[in-house]
Request: fold
Amino acid sequence: MHRTSVIQRPDLQETALEHGYEYRAGEGIPYWDETAYYRFTLRQIEEDIELPAAEIEAMCHQLLDRSLVDETLYQRLCIPEAYWDYVADSWRNRQKDLYGRLDFSYDGTGKAKLLEYNADTPTTLYESAIFQWVWLEQAIAAGLIPRDCDQFAELHEELVDAFRRMGVEGLLHFACLRDIDDDRETVFYLEECAQEAGLGTQFLALRDIGIDALGQFTDLEDRVITTLFKLYPWEWVMDEEFGRYLVSSGAIFIEPPWKAVLANK
Reply:
């Protein structure tokens, strides 16, 4: 791994606006910093990063297997007892998940070390999947980086493929807190990925989700929500009044309830 300094694109602001991306965290504070890039070898990517990531994911699944026979794990994680069967059944039935983000510490030597697993509500998707690729293409065209540079991640393609394999029947609803820009932009991007996968979608704010007489969740047009992507932590959902309708709703959630175990802080 090698860190290389490089000049910022002169038209960064225009490019960000063109792609609908807010690259500043505040007045004069850069959220997106392209004054340096990191070069990795294929071996570093495959052996030092991808391999540990796969091993950690496998260890997480082993933990979930253990939770099926050892409910004290739910106690230690402060998951309300009313939801133990709900969480366990979601893993027992292997409800499909979409994505998660492993945060690593890596200095270019040895294996990457896990800092945190954001398994439930990771953001920074658009910049990782799209805006970084735009930078790569434009930086190559401008001669800022060598022409043989490539991006190892295929995040966008993998998200689209994951939606195709979800087996969603009917409309796929997306929801988040409307007044959090980062959440809303992440959900809009994921909705575009789902549409690219051929799925019908509908966005609504979390506060606009209703409950019908049968205890099913509904949208603003009173359509029953059968599958919902919610960018809202499971521990918060379980503390909400509407949490008691999770089972009666019959809805399938992305991310699934078993992510409440892995995302627990």
